[in-house]
């Protein structure tokens, strides 16, 4: 106890007037970055501003929501009937009841498995911290307040907040902290176990849903790292059959080398967007054009122009788009001659059969390859699919080096924030002029301290997700969902290391080093200096003194939740752009679409809040109810945002859970380390530490139990026992000539429709004057190389039936009334960024209609669009009815060895003969929507046209 008292006496001596120089004062600041002069006022300021602004922003949302559904309910406007959330009334409070009453099993259908898991995680945190608040505050606040009464007489200026910390008590009373640590571990493990079981039920419900059972990716395997001698369709089948034989052989497809095709399409899209931006600015006022035509520098990727001088932007970009279209067509037609790639896909007849093979192949690597369940086609990062194991390993090392460098660079500003912004009194010690201002109005600067430091800290981390997402792309992630999981991992590690550990204990480490240096100057040995430095006491005191900062920081999270609800950032951004910039029609349409939900960022924030609260729970118990209040508010507000505003860009089916589970256990382990540090500093009992030594083993055992009990059920859908997966499967043999696995899992560069420049219709009459290139009147198939997103047929007038539309050149004109995502949500160039594969809007690309011989080949409602897509994709029709292959893919072994199945099983039950419609009823549901008087083309189904 004498050793700890010496620290307090030293702190008391430091508070006395000193003749140290300014440089010495500057160095002394690093040992105690958050003193008690204005910390109580700062915490109160954070509480007042947080709750006040949260209430104000929420009320503002309530009254704005009924009159701005484009911003506050885009999902309600655009989703189909199955996925649309409950309708909302015009009352300011009408949104509350649907959020409260919508149950979890409906959420899986309405918003998807990923969003449902996110909401369950927020509710788990809410309930967990409510229980922890009751237990922690009931035990720790009385213990801390009454346990330190002996020292309050010596230091009368101790604030109420600091009396709740454990730094003023010593001895056996720390058994209460050991008991609290065990209680916290048991509570957290219980909530994780309870929700693990719930996630298993949700995953089973997801696996058995009609959408999953009808999707092609659910019964398809992805094979990576295929040896060179097996890079054929037959080789893919051989690999998966080596893992596990099946009665019904799979369909295998090997991928082909796209080479420059993806880059050409990317350049084409960039050129289209550049041309749209140029025209939007130049034609902003069609009645008064600028005197000079827009100019631009040629693209660095354009090898046809060597000059760096500026050229006419409209003519150059239009010509470049035309040239790129011709090159894309030429490359697409030559894909058949390209070499095979080290990855492919194998499709099975049933979902459980595919999952059984994937489970049997887990960890086996047949023929050196990697076999796993295929993701959704829209989830694949195609440019990384061909990357070898060695390249991924090397890129991963480089990626980690970049993250280490970023962490090291951030240490310096992090230290300055920890020293000065967390306590402005420290800034006054080295800046006399500011010290006078601080003394003149301490209440004002207390409010600034409570708001400024957490705000600046949060602002920096706003840009981190984009940085880590880019690094993960370079590291070789093959899917977007795996990239987001890795981004979450790296963000969490960065936050915990840099913003929690280094930020929190730097002052203690600085004092520890300076004590050793001082002892060495007094000719003490290094060991004596270490014994006298009392490093554990320094760390415990530094963490206790820093706890008001984290309390203020957590209080401000409520304001962030309200700002998310108000969508003030999106409102301000779009309003500013509309008024002061020149948005293109495409941008105006995209701004009305539901924004994608950033799971990586939000999961990282919640995990970090949880880690901070658990680590400081024993040092400042008030962080527990503050965190509980935050999750109570945000779990409710986020449910509205997920139901009515955001969409899941790429559905993963809830695979985030294991990352969340592991990070929660790590946060609990970190909290146990903090408790052990406090006990070692002032508890003076190795017995206490020995008792706490069992906590890491408790967490490890719990993790292994959950892994063995639940993980297989979460990862695989197998109706039979997993013990029987090595035996051959049984089931009805089904024809899979309609799977179209080559198309669905072919590189999108093969068949992706090309973007067309969009121009506002108000400027249509000027195109003939400002555009010097081709128009409809002088365009034929040769002028666009027989390949274009616009000129597959003559454009017809929308207003005069049977009349050709006026000449427009290679542009798409958009009226003011059409600048809404509702009119474009089924087009690939819009749907991909704002709804994944179209499932939200009722037209998923990955859907296989059971019992029929076709899948969705296009998400366009227009027959001409379907024909154009077919032509541009280089598709050819073969002898198998209903089967289409893009250039670059061959018939699979199953297709070559099979003849057309003449039975009616799984095609059209009780179907009439070919070419004859059943009297009295349409052949297919599509014919029920056929326009009156249209020709009956149901027989085209058997020609492969449908």
UniProtKB/TrEMBL annotation:
Give all residue intervals belonging to the CSC1/OSCA1-like N-terminal transmembrane domain. Answer: 44-194
* Residue ranges of every copy of the CSC1/OSCA1-like cytosolic domain listed in the record: 218-384
List the Gene Ontology MF annotations in alphabetical order: calcium-activated cation channel activity
Q: Give the chief site where it resides.
A: membrane
Q: Basic and acidic residues compositional bias: what residue ranges?
A: 826-848
Mitochondrion: is it a keyword of this entry?
no
Record-linked Pfam families: PHM7_cyt, RSN1_7TM, RSN1_TM
User: What is this protein's record name?
Assistant: DUF221-domain-containing protein
């Amino acid at each position: 106890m004498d050793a700890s008292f010496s620290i307090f006496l030293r702190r008391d001596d430091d508070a006395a007037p000193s003749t140290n120089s300014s440089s010495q004062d500057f160095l002394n600041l690093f040992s105690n970055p958050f003193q008690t002069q204005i910390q109580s006022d700062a915490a109160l300021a954070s509480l007042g501003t947080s709750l006040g602004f949260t209430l104000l922003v929420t009320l503002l949302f309530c009254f704005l929501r009924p009159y701005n559904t484009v911003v506050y309910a885009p999902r309600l406007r655009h989703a189909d009937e199955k996925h649309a959330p409950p309708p909302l009334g015009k009352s300011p409070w009408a949104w509350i009841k649907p959020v409260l009453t919508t149950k979890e099993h409906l959420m899986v259908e309405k918003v998807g498995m990923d969003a449902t898991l996110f909401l369950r995680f927020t509710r788990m945190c809410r309930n967990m911290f409510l229980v922890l608040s009751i237990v922690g505050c009931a035990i720790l606040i009385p213990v801390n307040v009454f346990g330190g009464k002996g020292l309050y007489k010596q230091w009368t200026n101790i604030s109420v907040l600091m009396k709740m910390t454990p730094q003023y008590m010593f001895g056996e009373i720390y058994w209460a902290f050991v008991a609290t640590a065990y209680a916290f571990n048991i509570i957290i493990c219980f909530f994780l176990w309870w929700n693990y079981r719930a996630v298993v039920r949700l995953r089973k419900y997801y696996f058995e849903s009609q959408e999953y059972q009808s999707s092609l990716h659910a019964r398809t395997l992805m094979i990576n790292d295929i040896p060179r001698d097996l890079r054929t369709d037959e080789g893919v089948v051989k690999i998966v059959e080596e893992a596990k034989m099946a009665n019904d052989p799979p369909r295998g497809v090997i991928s082909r080398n796209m080479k420059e095709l993806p880059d050409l399409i990317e350049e084409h899209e960039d050129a289209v967007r550049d041309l749209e931006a140029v025209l939007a600015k130049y034609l902003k006022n069609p009645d008064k054009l600028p005197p000079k035509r827009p100019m631009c520098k040629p693209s660095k990727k354009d090898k046809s122009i060597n000059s760096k001088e500026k050229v006419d932007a409209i003519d150059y970009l239009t010509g470049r788009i035309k040239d790129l279209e011709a090159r894309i067509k030429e490359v697409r037609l030559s894909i058949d001659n390209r070499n095979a790639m080290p990855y492919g896909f194998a499709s099975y007849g049933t979902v459980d059969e595919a999952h059984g093979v994937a489970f049997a192949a887990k960890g086996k690597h047949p023929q050196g390859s990697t076999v796993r369940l295929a993701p959704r086609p829209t989830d694949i990062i195609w440019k990384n699919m061909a990357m070898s194991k060695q390249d991924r390993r090397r890129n991963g090392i480089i990626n980690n080096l970049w993250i280490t460098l970023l962490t090291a660079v951030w240490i310096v500003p992090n230290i300055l924030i920890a020293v000065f912004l967390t306590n402005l009194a420290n800034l006054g010690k080295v800046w006399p002029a500011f010290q006078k201002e601080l003394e003149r109005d301490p209440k004002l600067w207390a409010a600034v301290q409570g708001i400024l430091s957490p705000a600046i800290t949060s602002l920096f981390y706003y840009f981190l997700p984009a940085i880590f997402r880019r690094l993960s792309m370079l590291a070789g992630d093959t899917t977007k969902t795996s990239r987001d999981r890795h981004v979450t991992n790296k963000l969490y590690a960065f936050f915990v290391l840099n913003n929690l550990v280094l930020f929190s204990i730097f002052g203690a480490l600085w004092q520890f080093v300076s004590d050793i240096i001082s002892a060495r100057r007094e000719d003490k040995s290094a060991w004596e200096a270490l014994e006298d430095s009392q490093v554990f006491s320094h760390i415990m005191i530094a963490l206790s003194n820093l706890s008001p900062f984290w309390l203020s920081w957590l209080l401000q999270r409520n304001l962030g939740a309200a700002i998310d609800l108000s969508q003030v950032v999106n409102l301000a951004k779009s309003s500013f752009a509309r008024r002061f910039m020149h948005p293109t029609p495409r941008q105006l349409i995209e701004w009305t679409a539901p924004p994608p939900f950033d799971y990586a960022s939000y999961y990282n924030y919640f995990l970090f809040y949880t880690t901070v609260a658990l680590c400081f729970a024993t040092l400042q118990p008030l962080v527990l109810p503050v965190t509980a209040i935050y999750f109570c508010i945000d779990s409710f507000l986020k449910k509205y945002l997920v139901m009515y505003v955001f969409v899941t860009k790429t559905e993963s089916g809830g695979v985030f859970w294991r990352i969340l589970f592991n990070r929660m256990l790590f946060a609990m382990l970190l909290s146990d380390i903090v408790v052990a540090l406090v006990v070692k500093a002032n508890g003076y009992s190795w017995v206490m530490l020995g008792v706490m030594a069992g906590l890491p083993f408790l967490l490890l055992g719990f993790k292994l139990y959950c892994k063995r009990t639940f993980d297989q059920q979460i990862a695989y859908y197998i109706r039979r026992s997993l013990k029987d997966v090595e035996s051959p499967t049984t089931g009805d043999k089904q024809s899979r000539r309609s799977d179209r696995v080559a198309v669905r899992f072919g590189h999108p560069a093969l068949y992706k429709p090309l973007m067309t420049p969009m121009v506002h219709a108000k400027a249509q009459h000027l195109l003939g004057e400002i555009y010097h290139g081709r128009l409809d009147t002088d365009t034929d198939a040769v002028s666009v190389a027989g390949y274009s997103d616009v000129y597959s047929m003559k454009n017809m007038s929308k207003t005069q039936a049977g009349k050709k539309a006026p000449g427009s050149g290679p542009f798409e004109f958009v009226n003011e009334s059409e600048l809404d995502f509702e009119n474009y949500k089924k087009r690939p160039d819009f749907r991909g960024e704002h709804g994944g594969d179209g499932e939200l809007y009722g037209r998923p690309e990955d859907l296989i209609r059971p019992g029929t011989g076709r899948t969705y080949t296009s998400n366009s409602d227009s027959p001409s669009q379907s024909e154009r897509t077919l032509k541009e994709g280089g598709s050819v029709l073969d002898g198998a009815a209903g089967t289409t292959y893009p250039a670059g893919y061959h018939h699979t072994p199953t297709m070559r060895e099979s003849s057309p199945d003449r039975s009616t099983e799984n095609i059209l039950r009780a179907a009439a003969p070919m070419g004859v419609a059943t009297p009295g009823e349409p052949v297919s549901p599509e014919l029920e929507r056929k326009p009156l008087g249209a020709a009956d083309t149901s027989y085209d189904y058997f020609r492969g046209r449908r």
